[in-house]
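Each record in this resource describes a single protein on a pair of labelled lines. With that in mind, the following record should read easily:

===
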Amino acid sequence: MSDDRVDGPDDGLDDEPPADSSRLSLSNRAGDQNGSLGASTVPMTKRDGERLREEVVFDGIGGVRPLPWGEAIDRFDAWYREGRDTAVVCENSRGETTAFRTPNRFTPEYREMLYAKSQSLERELREKWGRLLHTAMVTLTASSTDEQGRPRSPVDHLHDLLESWEAVRRALARVLDGRDWEYLAIIEPHESGYAHVHVGVFVKGPVVAEQFQPVLDAHVRNCPTATSDAHQVFDEDGEEDAVSVHRTASRPGDEGVENLGAYLAAYMAGEYGAEATEMPEYVRGFYATMWATGRQWFRPSNGAQEFMQPDEDEDDEDEEQLAEDWELVGIAPDGDPEEELIEIDPEEARRDVYRNVRFEDWPGPGDRQGEAL
């Protein structure tokens, strides 16, 4: 099994998804020349009962089927563009209306906000622990191919990758028992579009890479498709591999890593100000997987979460009271409610947008994800 990018064969979808005239060919995508997706024909999942957004499934003869990964990217792009153009319209008790656009977690504004929070985390820890602050980055992966070398479904790969998370957290707690420490975990894409996890660990006092081998071992034991060869502290040349350890610089210019938190968050922020649809195709493939599943890519410890919160403002309470006076009444597709306003029921806006994948006779026996592993 391998984490390398592969060109995926058609995985035998019995039913064709509904035609989408807006879909670009894989050879003519805007980002194709800057990081294309190799496994675009692989279905998003092969797991019966997997919950996916309704945009990436369709009703087939044999049940509720998932779209291929490449098609899911197109659906994500369309959803993103529509959301960027649409404004939310609210009305208060006096009949006044206001319209505003709300960023989603893939917009540059949201990604830059997470980047700023990550910078804040290490800044706060540096002020609290000074030169005693040391960091480690632990990398967790899972195989993107099965034993026959075929590309795996991205949702199933992500499911397996994250299955070890609780065991990894417990292993970290044992390794750092009695120490002051926090963590920030980031899920990010390989150039294949498949995900892997970076866990940034912030510790008061020195640490060495070897201390984190039990954490890697916990991942291998609890992730069905992780291999021990890919989770060793040192590679065959004796260089740090799945774990890297640094002392954080107490001041800019000092020897050490300036800001591990910002380094991790830079993976999410991407190119400054770039829209999600402008990213390379492999990044959009990763976005499509996260969007389709509703998975969060940003996992701080409780303590780290507190350090990342902005300072309380005296006007916060007044703003909360003001917010209570406003109610959602509709959306403006082009951003201008004077031009067009579509009234919506607030309850309808909160409806479940996910559906369970259902296979009645596909994949065939022995071909469901995981049975051949």
